[in-house]
Amino acid sequence: DVNYSLFKSKGDSDLALEAAKAKRKVCEAEKHLADCILEHQSILLDLWRRHAEVANCHLLNVDLNVGRMHMECKKSGIAAFARSDSGLMVSAHLLVSL
Which has the closest alpha carbon to 70: 61, 60, 80? Predict the structure, then answer.
Protein backbone atom coordinates (compact mmCIF):
# COMPACT_ATOMS: atom_id res chain seq x y z
CA ASP A 1 0.00 0.00 0.00
CA VAL A 2 1.01 3.59 -0.58
CA ASN A 3 2.00 5.90 2.29
CA TYR A 4 -0.05 8.96 1.31
CA SER A 5 1.56 11.17 3.97
CA LEU A 6 4.66 11.35 1.78
CA PHE A 7 2.80 13.51 -0.74
CA LYS A 8 3.31 17.16 0.21
CA SER A 9 2.49 19.32 -2.82
CA LYS A 10 -0.75 19.80 -4.76
CA GLY A 11 0.70 17.78 -7.64
CA ASP A 12 1.64 14.99 -5.26
CA SER A 13 -1.83 14.91 -3.73
CA ASP A 14 -3.39 14.76 -7.20
CA LEU A 15 -1.18 11.80 -8.00
CA ALA A 16 -2.05 10.17 -4.66
CA LEU A 17 -5.75 10.57 -5.48
CA GLU A 18 -5.22 9.00 -8.90
CA ALA A 19 -3.26 6.15 -7.30
CA ALA A 20 -6.10 5.57 -4.83
CA LYS A 21 -8.64 5.55 -7.68
CA ALA A 22 -6.53 3.09 -9.63
CA LYS A 23 -6.20 0.87 -6.54
CA ARG A 24 -9.99 0.96 -6.17
CA LYS A 25 -10.37 -0.19 -9.79
CA VAL A 26 -7.99 -3.08 -9.10
CA CYS A 27 -10.04 -4.07 -6.05
CA GLU A 28 -13.26 -3.90 -8.10
CA ALA A 29 -11.69 -6.11 -10.77
CA GLU A 30 -10.54 -8.61 -8.13
CA LYS A 31 -14.06 -8.71 -6.67
CA HIS A 32 -15.57 -9.18 -10.12
CA LEU A 33 -13.15 -12.05 -10.81
CA ALA A 34 -14.02 -13.67 -7.47
CA ASP A 35 -17.75 -13.33 -8.27
CA CYS A 36 -17.21 -14.93 -11.69
CA ILE A 37 -15.23 -17.82 -10.17
CA LEU A 38 -17.97 -18.33 -7.58
CA GLU A 39 -20.66 -18.37 -10.29
CA HIS A 40 -18.62 -20.86 -12.34
CA GLN A 41 -18.11 -23.16 -9.36
CA SER A 42 -21.83 -22.97 -8.48
CA ILE A 43 -22.77 -24.00 -12.01
CA LEU A 44 -20.33 -26.91 -11.90
CA LEU A 45 -21.77 -27.95 -8.52
CA ASP A 46 -25.29 -27.94 -10.00
CA LEU A 47 -24.04 -30.04 -12.91
CA TRP A 48 -22.47 -32.62 -10.59
CA ARG A 49 -25.67 -32.70 -8.50
CA ARG A 50 -27.61 -33.54 -11.65
CA HIS A 51 -25.12 -36.28 -12.51
CA ALA A 52 -25.54 -37.70 -9.01
CA GLU A 53 -29.34 -37.58 -9.32
CA VAL A 54 -29.20 -39.44 -12.65
CA ALA A 55 -26.83 -42.03 -11.15
CA ASN A 56 -29.16 -42.49 -8.15
CA CYS A 57 -32.14 -43.01 -10.48
CA HIS A 58 -30.14 -45.52 -12.51
CA LEU A 59 -29.12 -47.35 -9.33
CA LEU A 60 -32.73 -47.45 -8.13
CA ASN A 61 -33.79 -48.87 -11.50
CA VAL A 62 -31.11 -51.55 -11.34
CA ASP A 63 -32.04 -52.42 -7.74
CA LEU A 64 -35.70 -52.76 -8.74
CA ASN A 65 -34.75 -54.99 -11.67
CA VAL A 66 -32.61 -57.19 -9.44
CA GLY A 67 -35.47 -57.48 -6.95
CA ARG A 68 -37.91 -58.27 -9.74
CA MET A 69 -35.59 -60.95 -11.16
CA HIS A 70 -35.14 -62.43 -7.69
CA MET A 71 -38.91 -62.63 -7.18
CA GLU A 72 -39.46 -64.15 -10.63
CA CYS A 73 -36.80 -66.77 -9.95
CA LYS A 74 -38.38 -67.57 -6.60
CA LYS A 75 -41.85 -67.85 -8.14
CA SER A 76 -40.75 -70.11 -10.98
CA GLY A 77 -38.38 -72.21 -8.87
CA ILE A 78 -35.36 -71.34 -11.02
CA ALA A 79 -32.14 -71.49 -9.04
CA ALA A 80 -30.20 -68.24 -8.92
CA PHE A 81 -26.79 -68.35 -10.51
CA ALA A 82 -23.60 -66.85 -9.17
CA ARG A 83 -20.03 -66.68 -10.42
CA SER A 84 -17.71 -69.13 -8.66
CA ASP A 85 -14.03 -68.52 -7.88
CA SER A 86 -13.12 -70.32 -11.12
CA GLY A 87 -15.30 -67.90 -13.09
CA LEU A 88 -17.92 -70.51 -13.97
CA MET A 89 -21.61 -69.88 -13.48
CA VAL A 90 -22.92 -72.30 -10.88
CA SER A 91 -26.24 -72.69 -9.12
CA ALA A 92 -26.54 -70.88 -5.81
CA HIS A 93 -27.57 -74.23 -4.27
CA LEU A 94 -24.21 -75.71 -5.27
CA LEU A 95 -22.37 -72.61 -4.13
CA VAL A 96 -23.84 -72.90 -0.62
CA SER A 97 -22.88 -76.57 -0.33
CA LEU A 98 -19.29 -75.96 -1.45
Answer: 80
